[in-house]
Design brief:
The protein has about 170 residues and is mainly α. It has 6 helices and no strands.
Length: about 170
């Protein structure tokens, strides 16, 4: 199971890096067109914003796997190790439930929700929204895998401890 999470994380990271490179190139082209050629690319800002939306949600998947989301562990860290593991396990389980619900709602909104056409590109906004159920589904899977791993190891494997990077 950890191999599955590792592969998903690698794919998400490389996809995020690729999108970031594309957004950077689009914005550099926009600057060149605007200030050198005295013209502008009408679609560049829209596509860059969509790319940034994808980067944020894909980055959240990577953060979920490494337990790198913002947290304030001050109170939890002063507890005994057993209580700390239980609280972190419950928090991961609650996160999995919330993300699962968010996945269902975002999937319904993406598949059947209200979509418009982008003003400059004429593409359905459904493509920008598609990353939300993808990312929340992957984060749900990662949280469930973390809970299963912690329960299987009888709490010895704290779900809040990030996995080792190769």
């Amino acid at each position: 199971m950890s191999r599955l999470a590792e592969v998903m994380d690698g794919v998400v990271r490389w996809l995020g890096i690729t999108i970031l490179c594309c957004v950077t190139m689009i914005m550099l082209a926009q600057v060149f067109f605007r200030y050198v050629l005295n013209d502008s690319l009408l679609w560049s800002e829209e596509l860059a914003v969509w790319g940034l939306i994808w980067i944020v949600f894909l980055g959240s998947v990577h953060l979920m796997r490494g337990n790198l989301h913002v947290s304030i562990p001050g109170l939890v860290d002063i507890l005994p190790p057993t209580a700390r593991r239980i609280i972190r396990l419950v928090a991961t389980l609650v996160s999995a439930c919330f993300l699962g619900l968010f996945f269902v709602v975002s999937l319904e909104a993406t598949i059947g929700g209200f979509h418009t056409r982008s003003p400059s590109m004429g593409i359905s906004t459904q493509w920008a929204k598609l990353v939300i159920p993808i990312a929340t589904g992957l984060m749900t899977l990662i949280a469930v895998l973390q809970v299963v791993r912690a329960v299987r190891n009888r709490g010895a494997d704290d779900p809040a401890v990030p996995p080792k990077d190769p």
